Amino acid sequence: MTTRTSLEPPVAPPPPEVSRLRSLLDFYLTSTRLAIIRNFQYRVANYFYMIGMLAEPIMLLVVWSAVARSRGGSVDGLTPGDFAAYFIVWTLVRQMNIAFTPAAWEWRIREGQLSGWLLRPIHPINYDLADIGGWKVAVIVMWLPIAAVLTVIFHPTLHPRLVDVLVFAVAIWGAYAIRSLALWLLGMVTFWTTRVGAIFETYFAAELILSGRIVPLKLMPAWVQRLANFLPFKWTFGYPIESLVGRLPIAQLVGGLAAQALWIAVGSGLVALLWRRAIRRFSSVGN
Amino acid sequence: MERFRPARVAWLYFRIGLMNELQYRVNFLIQLLQSAIALGTGLVVIALVFSHTKELNGWSASQLLVVLGIQILMGGVIQSLIQPNMTRLMEEVRLGKLDYALTKPEDAQLLVSVREVRIWQGADVLTGAIVIGIAIARLQHGVGLVHALAFAAAIMLGAVMVYCFWLIITTSAFWIVRMDQLVELFQGVYQTGRWPVGIYPTWLRFGLTFLVPIAFAVTVPAEAVTSRLHWTTLLGSAGFAVLLFGFTRWFWTVGLRHYSGASA
Question: Which residue of chain A is at minimal alpha-carbon distance from B55?
Answer without folding.
Answer: A70
